[in-house]
Protein backbone atom coordinates (compact mmCIF):
# COMPACT_ATOMS: atom_id res chain seq x y z
CA UNK A 1 0.00 0.00 0.00
CA UNK A 2 2.77 2.45 0.93
CA UNK A 3 4.60 1.67 -2.32
CA UNK A 4 1.46 2.48 -4.35
CA UNK A 5 0.87 5.73 -2.48
CA UNK A 6 4.48 6.84 -2.83
CA UNK A 7 4.57 5.97 -6.56
CA UNK A 8 1.55 8.22 -7.22
CA UNK A 9 3.04 10.90 -4.99
CA UNK A 10 6.51 10.94 -6.55
CA UNK A 11 5.29 11.11 -10.14
CA UNK A 12 4.25 14.70 -9.44
CA UNK A 13 6.69 17.58 -9.32
CA UNK A 14 7.67 17.66 -5.66
CA UNK A 15 8.29 20.85 -3.74
CA UNK A 16 10.97 20.95 -1.06
CA UNK A 17 8.67 19.88 1.79
CA UNK A 18 7.18 17.02 -0.25
CA UNK A 19 10.64 15.79 -1.21
CA UNK A 20 11.68 15.75 2.45
CA UNK A 21 8.46 13.92 3.35
CA UNK A 22 9.07 11.36 0.62
CA UNK A 23 12.55 10.58 1.90
CA UNK A 24 11.14 10.13 5.39
CA UNK A 25 8.42 7.74 4.21
CA UNK A 26 10.91 5.86 2.05
CA UNK A 27 12.68 4.63 5.17
CA UNK A 28 9.64 2.46 5.96
CA UNK A 29 9.98 0.57 2.66
CA UNK A 30 11.89 -2.62 2.02
CA UNK A 31 15.14 -2.51 0.03
CA UNK A 32 13.33 -3.81 -3.08
CA UNK A 33 10.67 -1.12 -2.75
CA UNK A 34 13.31 1.58 -2.28
CA UNK A 35 15.10 0.39 -5.41
CA UNK A 36 11.87 0.64 -7.41
CA UNK A 37 10.74 3.99 -6.03
CA UNK A 38 13.99 5.91 -6.44
CA UNK A 39 13.87 5.19 -10.18
CA UNK A 40 10.83 7.49 -10.29
CA UNK A 41 12.66 10.42 -8.68
CA UNK A 42 13.31 13.62 -10.59
CA UNK A 43 16.85 14.29 -11.80
CA UNK A 44 16.59 17.71 -10.13
CA UNK A 45 16.50 17.50 -6.34
CA UNK A 46 15.83 20.90 -4.77
CA UNK A 47 15.70 21.17 -0.98
CA UNK A 48 16.64 24.83 -0.57
CA UNK A 49 15.85 26.58 1.70
CA UNK A 50 14.22 23.86 3.82
CA UNK A 51 16.52 22.74 6.69
CA UNK A 52 17.74 19.17 6.23
CA UNK A 53 17.75 16.95 9.30
CA UNK A 54 20.28 14.18 9.87
CA UNK A 55 17.63 11.55 9.08
CA UNK A 56 16.80 13.23 5.75
CA UNK A 57 20.50 13.50 4.89
CA UNK A 58 20.95 9.82 5.75
CA UNK A 59 18.04 8.86 3.48
CA UNK A 60 19.35 11.04 0.67
CA UNK A 61 22.82 9.54 0.96
CA UNK A 62 21.30 6.07 0.68
CA UNK A 63 19.11 6.69 -2.36
CA UNK A 64 21.57 8.67 -4.49
CA UNK A 65 23.62 5.62 -5.59
CA UNK A 66 20.36 3.85 -6.57
CA UNK A 67 19.26 6.51 -9.06
CA UNK A 68 18.90 5.35 -12.66
CA UNK A 69 19.62 8.63 -14.44
CA UNK A 70 22.35 11.24 -13.95
CA UNK A 71 21.38 13.89 -11.37
CA UNK A 72 21.22 17.29 -13.05
CA UNK A 73 20.98 19.26 -9.82
CA UNK A 74 21.18 18.73 -6.08
CA UNK A 75 20.33 22.03 -4.41
CA UNK A 76 20.85 22.18 -0.66
CA UNK A 77 21.62 25.90 -0.45
CA UNK A 78 21.11 27.34 3.03
CA UNK A 79 19.71 24.07 4.40
CA UNK A 80 21.56 24.24 7.74
CA UNK A 81 23.68 21.20 6.94
CA UNK A 82 25.79 20.02 9.85
CA UNK A 83 29.01 18.10 9.30
CA UNK A 84 27.43 14.68 9.75
CA UNK A 85 24.69 15.47 7.21
CA UNK A 86 27.26 16.81 4.75
CA UNK A 87 29.33 13.66 5.19
CA UNK A 88 26.37 11.36 4.44
CA UNK A 89 25.28 13.30 1.37
CA UNK A 90 28.80 13.48 -0.07
CA UNK A 91 29.31 9.77 0.51
CA UNK A 92 26.15 9.08 -1.47
CA UNK A 93 27.36 11.31 -4.30
CA UNK A 94 30.72 9.54 -4.35
CA UNK A 95 28.88 6.27 -5.07
CA UNK A 96 26.75 7.61 -7.93
CA UNK A 97 26.79 5.54 -11.10
CA UNK A 98 26.76 8.72 -13.22
CA UNK A 99 28.42 12.08 -12.60
CA UNK A 100 26.24 14.76 -11.01
CA UNK A 101 25.90 17.87 -13.15
CA UNK A 102 25.56 20.51 -10.42
CA UNK A 103 25.98 20.32 -6.63
CA UNK A 104 24.91 23.47 -4.77
CA UNK A 105 26.12 23.56 -1.16
CA UNK A 106 26.23 27.33 -0.70
CA UNK A 107 25.50 29.16 2.56
CA UNK A 108 25.90 26.14 4.79
CA UNK A 109 28.44 27.24 7.37
CA UNK A 110 30.51 24.06 7.66
CA UNK A 111 33.80 25.91 7.10
CA UNK A 112 37.12 24.15 6.65
CA UNK A 113 35.91 21.10 8.57
CA UNK A 114 33.49 20.23 5.77
CA UNK A 115 35.98 20.46 2.92
CA UNK A 116 37.37 16.96 3.48
CA UNK A 117 33.90 15.43 3.10
CA UNK A 118 33.32 17.37 -0.13
CA UNK A 119 36.64 16.18 -1.54
CA UNK A 120 35.39 12.59 -1.29
CA UNK A 121 32.85 13.22 -4.06
CA UNK A 122 34.73 15.64 -6.36
CA UNK A 123 35.27 12.95 -8.98
CA UNK A 124 31.50 12.67 -9.38
CA UNK A 125 30.61 16.37 -9.62
CA UNK A 126 30.92 18.54 -12.73
CA UNK A 127 29.85 21.89 -11.22
CA UNK A 128 30.19 22.83 -7.56
CA UNK A 129 28.98 25.88 -5.65
CA UNK A 130 30.45 26.60 -2.22
CA UNK A 131 29.29 30.19 -1.85
CA UNK A 132 29.57 31.64 1.63
CA UNK A 133 30.54 28.41 3.39
CA UNK A 134 33.17 29.97 5.66
CA UNK A 135 36.15 28.38 3.90
CA UNK A 136 39.55 29.87 4.76
CA UNK A 137 42.88 29.50 2.96
CA UNK A 138 43.45 26.32 4.98
CA UNK A 139 40.34 24.62 3.65
CA UNK A 140 40.96 26.04 0.19
CA UNK A 141 44.37 24.35 0.09
CA UNK A 142 42.79 20.97 0.83
CA UNK A 143 40.16 21.52 -1.86
CA UNK A 144 42.64 22.64 -4.54
CA UNK A 145 44.97 19.73 -3.80
CA UNK A 146 42.11 17.35 -4.61
CA UNK A 147 41.02 19.26 -7.71
CA UNK A 148 44.50 19.39 -9.24
CA UNK A 149 44.77 15.64 -10.08
CA UNK A 150 41.15 15.20 -11.29
CA UNK A 151 41.11 13.32 -14.60
CA UNK A 152 38.33 15.57 -15.95
CA UNK A 153 38.48 19.33 -15.25
CA UNK A 154 35.64 20.81 -13.21
CA UNK A 155 33.28 22.87 -15.37
CA UNK A 156 32.51 25.40 -12.63
CA UNK A 157 33.72 26.07 -9.13
CA UNK A 158 32.02 28.86 -7.18
CA UNK A 159 33.91 30.11 -4.13
CA UNK A 160 32.20 33.51 -3.91
CA UNK A 161 31.93 35.09 -0.45
CA UNK A 162 34.57 32.91 1.24
CA UNK A 163 36.99 35.38 2.82
CA UNK A 164 40.33 33.61 2.34
CA UNK A 165 41.95 36.74 0.91
CA UNK A 166 45.43 36.85 -0.59
CA UNK A 167 46.43 33.82 1.48
CA UNK A 168 44.40 31.76 -0.98
CA UNK A 169 45.85 33.23 -4.18
CA UNK A 170 48.88 30.96 -4.43
CA UNK A 171 46.78 27.94 -3.55
CA UNK A 172 44.27 28.74 -6.31
CA UNK A 173 47.08 28.97 -8.84
CA UNK A 174 47.93 25.32 -8.23
CA UNK A 175 44.62 24.07 -9.67
CA UNK A 176 43.69 26.77 -12.21
CA UNK A 177 44.44 24.53 -15.18
CA UNK A 178 41.86 21.99 -13.94
CA UNK A 179 38.88 24.35 -13.53
CA UNK A 180 37.15 25.80 -16.58
CA UNK A 181 35.39 28.60 -14.72
CA UNK A 182 36.20 29.82 -11.21
CA UNK A 183 34.14 32.40 -9.33
CA UNK A 184 35.96 34.47 -6.68
CA UNK A 185 33.66 37.42 -5.98
CA UNK A 186 34.01 39.04 -2.55
CA UNK A 187 36.76 36.74 -1.31
CA UNK A 188 38.87 39.55 0.13
CA UNK A 189 41.50 39.40 -2.62
CA UNK A 190 43.56 42.60 -2.99
CA UNK A 191 44.54 44.25 -6.27
CA UNK A 192 48.02 42.74 -5.88
CA UNK A 193 46.41 39.33 -5.45
CA UNK A 194 44.30 39.88 -8.56
CA UNK A 195 47.38 40.85 -10.57
CA UNK A 196 49.12 37.67 -9.38
CA UNK A 197 46.16 35.59 -10.54
CA UNK A 198 46.14 37.31 -13.92
CA UNK A 199 49.86 36.61 -14.29
CA UNK A 200 49.29 32.94 -13.43
CA UNK A 201 46.52 32.66 -16.04
CA UNK A 202 48.86 34.17 -18.61
CA UNK A 203 51.65 31.77 -17.64
CA UNK A 204 49.30 28.82 -18.05
CA UNK A 205 47.94 30.12 -21.36
CA UNK A 206 44.39 30.29 -19.98
CA UNK A 207 41.70 32.86 -20.88
CA UNK A 208 41.38 35.83 -18.54
CA UNK A 209 37.73 34.95 -17.92
CA UNK A 210 38.63 31.54 -16.53
CA UNK A 211 38.28 33.51 -13.29
CA UNK A 212 35.04 35.45 -12.77
CA UNK A 213 34.02 38.08 -10.25
CA UNK A 214 37.39 39.84 -9.89
CA UNK A 215 37.69 41.76 -13.16
CA UNK A 216 35.85 42.76 -16.31
CA UNK A 217 36.43 41.40 -19.81
CA UNK A 218 39.12 44.03 -20.45
CA UNK A 219 41.00 43.00 -17.28
CA UNK A 220 40.07 46.07 -15.23
CA UNK A 221 39.30 45.15 -11.65
CA UNK A 222 35.76 44.83 -10.33
CA UNK A 223 34.76 46.45 -7.05
CA UNK A 224 34.59 43.92 -4.19
CA UNK A 225 31.72 45.80 -2.57
CA UNK A 226 29.54 45.87 -5.69
CA UNK A 227 25.90 44.83 -5.42
CA UNK A 228 25.30 41.08 -5.38
CA UNK A 229 22.74 41.49 -8.19
CA UNK A 230 25.33 42.72 -10.71
CA UNK A 231 25.46 40.90 -14.05
CA UNK A 232 28.63 39.05 -13.05
CA UNK A 233 27.11 37.72 -9.84
CA UNK A 234 25.91 34.17 -9.47
CA UNK A 235 22.26 33.99 -10.56
CA UNK A 236 21.39 30.37 -9.85
CA UNK A 237 22.49 28.92 -13.17
CA UNK A 238 25.60 28.69 -15.29
CA UNK A 239 26.16 28.33 -18.99
CA UNK A 240 27.67 25.02 -20.04
CA UNK A 241 30.73 26.32 -21.83
CA UNK A 242 33.21 23.95 -23.38
Summarize it.
This protein has helices at residues 2-10, 16-26, 31-38, 54-63, 83-94, 111-119, 137-147, 169-173, 191-204; strands spanning 44-46, 73-75, 100-104, 125-129, 156-158, 182-183, 211-212.
What is the topological layout?
Blueprint: H1 2-10, H2 16-26, H3 31-38, E1 44-46, H4 54-63, E2 73-75, H5 83-94, E3 100-104, H6 111-119, E4 125-129, H7 137-147, E5 156-158, H8 169-173, E6 182-183, H9 191-204, E7 211-212
Helix pairs in contact: 1-2, 2-4, 4-5, 5-6, 6-7
What does this molecule look like?
There is one protein chain. With 242 residues, the chain is an alpha/beta fold. The protein has a single domain, classed as Leucine-rich repeat, LRR (right-handed beta-alpha superhelix) (Alpha-Beta Horseshoe). Helices cover 37% and strands 10% of the residues. It contains 9 helices and 7 strands; from the N terminus they run αααβαβαβαβαβαβαβ. The chain has helices spanning 2-10, 16-26, 31-38, 54-63, 83-94, 111-119, 137-147, 169-173, 191-204, and strands spanning 44-46, 73-75, 100-104, 125-129, 156-158, 182-183, 211-212. The chain has a 7-stranded parallel β-sheet with strand order 1-2-3-4-5-6-7, with no helix packed on it. Helix 6 links the parallel strand 3 and strand 4 (125-129). Helix 1 runs antiparallel to helix 2 (16-26) and helix 6 runs parallel beside helix 7. The longest helix is centred in the last third of the chain and has 14 residues, at 191-204. The protein starts with a helix and ends in a 30-residue tail after the last strand. 37% of the residues are buried. Residues 225-242 have low confidence and may be disordered.
Amino acid sequence: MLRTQLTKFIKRDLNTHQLTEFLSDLQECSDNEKHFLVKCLSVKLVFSPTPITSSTAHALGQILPKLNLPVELLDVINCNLNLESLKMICKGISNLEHKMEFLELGWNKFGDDGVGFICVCLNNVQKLSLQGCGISATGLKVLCEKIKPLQTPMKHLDLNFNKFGDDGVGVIGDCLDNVRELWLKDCGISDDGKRNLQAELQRLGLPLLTIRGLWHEDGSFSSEDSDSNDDESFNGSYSDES
